[in-house]
Amino acid sequence: MTPAERRAALEAIAAEVRVCTICRLAEGRTNAVPGEGSPDTEVVVIGEGPGFNEDRLGRPFIGRAGDLLTKLLGSIEWRREDVFITNVVKCRPPDNRDPEPDEVAACGPYLKRQLEALDPALIVTLGRHSMGRFMPGARISQAHGTTGPVDPASGARDATVFAMYHPAAALRSAEVERQSYEDAARIPQVLLDARARRAAAAGQQPASKPAPDPEPAADLTIF
Ligand code: URA
Ligand code: SF4
Asked: Which of 42, 89, 105, 137 has fewest C-beta within 10 Å?
């Protein structure tokens, strides 16, 4: 995909999300929150779902948790505009409750299409709901600060996942906040490793031969 095609694909997805009524979360929302950021980024940051402020403005991570996310990125001299920020569900669950499995499943195709368009080298998950999509069965207390391979069925063709605590959890605990800064400090090296692994994998594939379809059919309904 050219950068212009990528931008157009992301805009088309966002336009669908804004008017989506596929699941019950549409009923309570003010604005759906498709996500935002650089269409040319190598890094996608994925939270859980919009909160009060995000719902009012239709933008991800703009409340207190968002301020902390901006600070965490700032601690490695990254700006939020340099990455793409989105959520597992695009509409605010009532009273900020956890998204239900059927809501996550209903919204999954949007995230999958975003990941297909962005083709990131690195996915940073924030909190356990987002982590659960990419590291099934992992526990956040153990998995935060660690990486894993991303299932291409997620839409991300060849990405590494890096799990972090949700910034809202860091706002509630000084220890989680400290560990979040520690984890953030690892991101630049994790990206370098993810990039190197992708380049090596690409080098092993002659350009004339298309890659085999990596999507296991059984996983299609999850995403
Ligand atoms: N929390 C999230 O998980 N996502 C947002 O966009 C804001 C707060
Ligand atoms: Fe549609 Fe996702 Fe919003 Fe549900 S949460 S209405 S699937 S955009």
From this structure: 137
Q: What is the DSSP letter of 150?
A: P
Tell me the residue ranges of DSSP E strands in the chain. 36-37, 43-47, 84-87, 122-126, 147-149, 160-164
Q: Which ligand is nearest to the CA of 25?
A: 2
Rounded Cα distance, 101 and 23, in Å? 11
Domain edges within the chain:
3-202
Do 85 and 45 contact (CB within 8 A), yes or no? Answer: yes
pLDDT tens track for 38-94: 999 999 999 999 999 999 999 999 999 999 999 999 999 999 999 999 999 999 999
pTM of the predicted structure, to 2 decimals? 0.91
Give the DSSP letter string of 118-137.
H--SEEEEESHHHHHHHSTT
Extract the tokens encoding 198: 């992708």
Ligand 1 centroid from CA 210, angstroms: 37
d(CA 89, ligand 1 centre) in Å: 10
